[in-house]
Design goal:
mainly beta
């Protein structure tokens, strides 16, 4: 089954930017509606942004206007461009199929702190 590997996280100051990547194995990536999720310490995992196979996008209200989700099906990769980062964006970020099929990856840690 398809697996996803997240990368691109790190430590950034408030107001800074990061771009996360989600690399998919196999050749079926373009057929999946995909999502970026995050889980902060002590909190439940939440959906941050989603993108359909056709490129339609939706965002959580808490990231609208700051984050952009996009995908490159030729590279089997999805991205999350994050700008104007806030300390409350600190979390482990994961990518996954929106239908919930398949395991969670290891995620990538994003820490927003001065």
């Amino acid at each position: 089954q398809v697996q996803f590997v997240e990368s691109g996280g790190g430590l950034v100051q408030p107001g800074g930017s990061l771009r996360l990547s989600c690399a998919a194995s196999g050749s079926m990536f373009s057929f999946y509606d995909m999502g970026w999720y995050r889980q902060a310490a002590g909190k439940q995992r939440e959906l941050v942004a989603e993108i359909s196979t056709g490129g339609s996008t939706n965002y959580g209200d808490f990231v609208k206007g700051r984050f952009t989700i996009f995908r490159d099906n030729a590279k089997n990769t999805m991205y999350l461009q994050m700008s104007s980062l806030k300390p409350e964006d600190t979390a482990v970020y994961y990518c996954r199929r929106l239908d919930g099929i398949g395991p969670w990856g290891q995620g990538t840690q994003v820490t927003v702190s001065s």
